[in-house]
Amino acid sequence: MNDDALLLRRYSEEGSEAAFTSLVRRHVDLVYGAALRRTGGDPHRAAEVAQQVFVQLARRAAKLARHPVLSAWLHTATRNAALNLMISDRRRQQRETEALALGAADPAGGTEPDWNRLRPCWTRRSTNCPSRTARPWCCVSSSAGRLPRSAPR
User: Fold this and answer.
1) Domain 3-89 carries which CATH code?
2) Residue ranges covered by each domain of the chain
3) Distance CA 72, CA 45 (A)
4) Which of 19, 47, 92, 151 could be cross-linked to 7 through a Cys-Cys bond (beta carbons 3.0 to 4.6 Å apart)?
5) pLDDT of residue 121
């Protein structure tokens, strides 16, 4: 049995923080370096990815104690976490761009929104919503929990 598997087993069975700390110290350079390359050299995003990977490692310690090569799993988990972060950032930027474009179309700011122009956004977003309560128009609803009177029905 290799040292990584032994340390993971100690952490999962005994809750040994020292064992997990030893694992992190042993592999942090590998994980952070891979994350730094995957995030285009952004140290903040790389640190976020590395943290996500080690949180996953802690949660899956018992299962990963049987993994033949932990460094391979860490590298794969780093790649996946970095990809998910970049995809999430790209989607957020697209939503912000759409919101900015909608705001620029109404420079007065205080007037009623053009609901017919917003309808395609609602339709596109609502088809991806997991439940009825997560529909995007809840964001524009009034404090009483209803759509504004001028909203399309």
Assistant:
1) 1.10.1740.10
2) 3-89, 112-148
3) 21
4) 19
5) 64
